[in-house]
Amino acid sequence: MQSLFSPLWSAGFWRVFLIIALFFGGSQALGQYRQSDFARDQATASATSDLVSKLPLEQTLGPLAAVAISPFFGLACLSGISLLGQQGLVPANQFLEANPVLGSPIVFFIFAGLSVLTTLPKLSKVSKPISQVADQLEVYASMISYGVILFAAEGSLEGLWAATPATPMVQAGIASLSIETILFVVAAVNLLVINTVKMFFDLLIWLCPVPTVDAIFEVASKALCGGLVAVYAFHPMTALALNLLIFLVCLVLFVWVKRRTTFYHSMLAAPPLRGIIRSLGFPHYDPDAAQLKPWQEEAGEGALVVKAFPNRKWQGIPKRGRCFLIAKPGQAEIVYPRFLRSTRRRALPEGGRRVVASLLVNSLEIAMPERRKPIKWHFSHLYDEQRPQLAALLQAPVQATDERGLNAPVCPPLPAN
Length: 417
Known about the structure:
The chain is α+β, with helices and mostly antiparallel strands.
């Protein structure tokens, strides 16, 4: 059973599933109550109508784009608007006013402090790899926080712990979903899609050689987030329309961006990040260990598993798609896990192989008779220690290039043991 679901688990989507499952299970337990079928349907329709009338969709979903662009800063701005609303300084908003979470000054200062802590590493290229990890934690923390805010918006946090017939439920086949759960799922998907695209551009900015461009991009992100929150404060419907537009554009780019974000993070951010974390007292830290484990167990002893990315489309595997190169004595194959679909396996062509070590990445180059240029499978410097073993298993020579792209003398292939 573990091997059946290991490709999905290793795909990186388990965190979102876990968060949604926690809220789904909690809402199920909190929302169940015993009534006759007729009475339950009547109560559901009445409670749903009451909640939607009290909390319009433009007020509950309008600020999602701002929160996705800068999660902690966006939540701090929403809390600030809630506090201003209590003083009558901004138009009335049922979602924000009397919200026990956003209306707390303590929550405002917590999110403001977290925003400062997560922003400072993004202002410098040296500390930018650390901010990449912080961004992952920030987006998942914002999902949980926004879920709590949605549940609290119905009245008070006491409603989370009291199962009452007023909890609106929607029957979907054999499952009953509360309105808050549906809104949370919509919010989680919205946050994930928009934030993933934003992180890709953040990574491209980090690769730009201009030192100050990182700080400029971060200030621009905060300004855009604050502008969207300001629009939401005075006209939630316009904010909802902008959120929908941004979400649709990001959804079109999501798969393309996700592959390239994973590639650049693995090639450029993961190696220095591993060095930093190991220097802090975690000598065995390996960012790819969890992803490699199921494939290493499947391959068995004597095999080597390396996370690799093709430089072009090849036999149904897209360019920059995250794959796993499994090398065994006399055998080598590429495994491409696909989300909610079957895993693709392709045997690597024999002959014409060489391992190239360059300044930024390692590559396995394979000559293709039908093409003028070889296909390249890039793998990061996390695998420098395994590079001789990989060359031996593939019977491929190792060639080094310097930062100018000039070739060093070719080393003969190591004998396979």
